[in-house]
UniProtKB/TrEMBL annotation, chain A:
Pfam families reported for this sequence: F-box-like (PF12937), FBA_3 (PF08268)
PROSITE patterns in UniProt: FBOX (PS50181)
Domain F-box: 25-71
Superkingdom to which the source organism belongs: Eukaryota
Native source species: Sesamum alatum
Name of the featured protein: F-box domain-containing protein
From TrEMBL, chain B:
Name of the protein in its database record: SKP1-like protein
Signal peptide stretch: none
Residue intervals of the SKP1 component POZ domain: 25-82
Function of the molecule: Involved in ubiquitination and subsequent proteasomal degradation of target proteins. Together with CUL1, RBX1 and a F-box protein, it forms a SCF E3 ubiquitin ligase complex. The functional specificity of this complex depends on the type of F-box protein. In the SCF complex, it serves as an adapter that links the F-box protein to CUL1.
Any one of the GO BP annotations: jasmonic acid mediated signaling pathway
Organism, as annotated: Sesamum alatum
Length: 398, 177
């Protein structure tokens, strides 16, 4: 296998055809690029993608990692993904919906077809197992084979991670977690295997650096036990989740650059409980969704990362939600400009009006049952790697 | 800043507070038109403020990158925003109407002028308006409007359209925005 590099900061990795004639003057635009960047930031994702088709200079402008960062910080839209986990029976359905919520709470839904490696297009079941910094990790499996792919759904790029050798009689249970380290500018995927569904003791833990590693590296056993339903979020170059062992519960971190386990302080005075609490990424901050009091849901947000005293909370009463809402399935995703809090609830979006203490469904798309739950998502417009791009382009015509 | 007090010898200077409202500046466009504007309105442009502070503003301020028509529009904006007693709501409404009738070419001229003169509020407003106009438009429309000729080969373009095929599929929308 050709050694692949993935560096979003490295602008030299554009495919050669693209860079060949990119001279700033080759495309004389009415506006200088500094102004164009600021205009593009205000556009919906699909229009940004269309801008890439205008000319080489615009293609380059949008593909720069600095543009993706700027868009993440300043776009007036909030983006979410709704993956459609598809089984073997249905090979024609869309695999993903991109949800784009504007400042006024309006929501547009757009289907995205994921580009998969050619041999995986048929008769494999696919599951989106993670979303992080614009990339998705997908699990593609049929009996005896499981392959993890890392994909940028906007550009259609897809990197296949090495298959894991696995005995067919092996009954162990495997989870994958993906994170992004801005310090290394690298994505890493963790593969954690437990004895079985019933036994949460971890047997093995391996890591793969996307674009660099050629094989899974063993990490030994840095984690104690695994809770299957605990969410893991990637923030500030580390993964965060609620961990439990022998009666003690804490927010655990895994530094992706150092590959070391650590802890981060939880809200002072709060007793953590795995069955009623989960971590979430709310407004790009570490947050803790607390449903331990049956009559309310509390969203704790760590305003300044790793500062224990910066935890603050929003309390929302259970009675403000309609009876068919399962409070423990609410995932806070964004606070809109008017102060409303948007929650993902399974495959639905619920907007909560703080002043009127009312909530309403936004979208109302009539989502099919096979939809999984809503994921937070930060669009990434750049090229994943140089050589996967070429591979993909050459296979399009086959 | 510190250089504010360094005035040319022999010039009588009003006290700071009075100075800006009463003093008028003359701005000269690229095509030679001259416009009078109160200093309090003119200094909403950071670039002009710097020129005034640097004492380049003794007589006429030449703005060689802004034509007369555009400068007239910019001055309308500045006067409104420097107006005594204009509420934020009034200004917001003015901004809305100010840009709504402009053609794309005019918006480009104004955004370039606002960028050059460093008028933050105007820049933000016009950028937003340009972005709004770009929604739901074809790539060809964008090229024509921005005076861009595609430098992709037809093959490249064909492949890219395939790559971005998802973007041309149906859109479900609840709220038009």
């Amino acid at each position: 296998m050709k050694k692949r590099r993935i560096g979003r900061k490295n602008q030299n990795q554009e495919a050669t055809w693209r860079t060949a004639n990119v001279v700033s003057d080759s495309c004389v635009s009415a506006l200088p690029s500094s102004l164009l960047r600021e205009i593009f930031v205000r556009l919906p994702v699909v229009v940004v993608m269309e801008c890439k088709l205008v000319c080489r200079a615009w293609y380059k402008l949008v593909s720069e990692s600095s543009f993706t960062d700027n868009y993440g910080r300043n776009s007036p839209f909030t983006h979410l993904l709704l993956p459609m986990n598809r089984g073997t029976a249905d090979t024609t359905s869309q695999l993903l919906y991109l949800l784009e919520i504007s400042e006024n709470g309006g929501c547009i839904r757009r289907p995205i077809k994921l580009q998969l490696p050619g041999r995986m297009k048929r008769r494999f079941s696919q599951f989106v197992v993670g979303s992080c910094s614009g990339l998705l990790s997908l699990s593609i499996c049929k009996p005896g084979v499981e392959v993890i792919c890392v994909s940028n759904p906007l550009t259609g790029e897809c990197i296949e991670l090495p298959e894991h050798e696995r005995d067919r009689a092996d009954k162990s249970f495997v989870l994958y977690k993906m994170g992004f380290s801005p310090f290394m500018d690298k994505f890493k995927v963790l593969r954690i295997s437990c004895k079985s569904w019933n036994d949460s003791r971890i047997e093995e833990c391996e890591i793969f650096t996307v674009g660099v590693g050629e094989r899974w590296r063993s990490l030994g056993n840095p984690f104690t036990r695994l809770c299957f339903w605990a969410d893991w979020i990637s923030l500030n170059g580390a993964l965060h989740w609620i961990a439990q062992d022998r009666g003690s519960v804490w927010i655990s971190t895994f530094d992706l650059a150092e590959e070391k386990v650590g802890r981060i302080s939880h809200p002072p005075g709060l007793e953590l409980d795995l069955s009623t609490m989960n971590v979430a990424l709310f407004r790009n901050q570490l947050s803790l969704v607390d449903c331990s009091v049956p009559s309310q849901i509390t969203i704790w947000t760590m305003k300044e990362y790793a500062i224990a005293s910066s935890w603050s909370k929003d309390v929302i009463l259970r009675s403000w939600f309609p009876p068919n809402v399962h409070v423990n399935k609410l995932i806070p995703v964004e606070r809109l400009h008017n102060g409303d809090i948007v929650f993902g609830h399974c495959a639905d979006l619920i907007s909560f009006n703080v002043k009127q203490k009312k909530c309403c469904k936004i979208g109302g798309f009539g989502v099919p049952r096979i939809a999984s739950r809503i994921m937070t998502y930060a669009p990434s417009f750049g090229s994943l790697t140089e050589d996967t791009k070429e591979v993909q382009w050459s296979t399009i015509n086959v | 800043m510190a250089r504010k007090n360094r005035n040319p010898v022999g010039k009588n200077v009003d006290p700071e507070a009075q100075k800006k409202k009463t003093r008028t500046l003359t701005l000269k466009s690229s095509d030679g038109q001259e416009f009078s504007i109160s200093e309090s309105a003119a200094v909403l442009s950071i670039a002009i403020e710097n020129m005034v502070e640097d004492d380049c503003a003794g007589g006429v301020i030449p703005l060689p990158l802004v034509d007369g028509g555009t400068l007239a529009r910019v001055i309308t904006y500045l006067n409104k925003h420097a107006e005594d007693g204009a509420s934020d709501e009034e200004k917001r409404k003015f901004d809305e109407e100010f840009v709504s009738g402009m053609e794309m070419g005019v918006l480009f001229d104004v955004v370039l002028a606002a960028n050059y003169l460093d008028i933050r509020g105007l820049l933000r407003e016009v950028r937003r308006r340009i972005a709004d106009r770009m929604k739901n438009k074809s790539v060809e429309w964008v090229r024509k409007t921005f005076h861009i000729e595609s430098d992709f080969t037809p093959e490249e373009e064909e492949q890219m359209k395939k790559e971005f095929a998802w973007a041309w599929e149906g859109v479900d929308s609840d709220v038009d925005d």
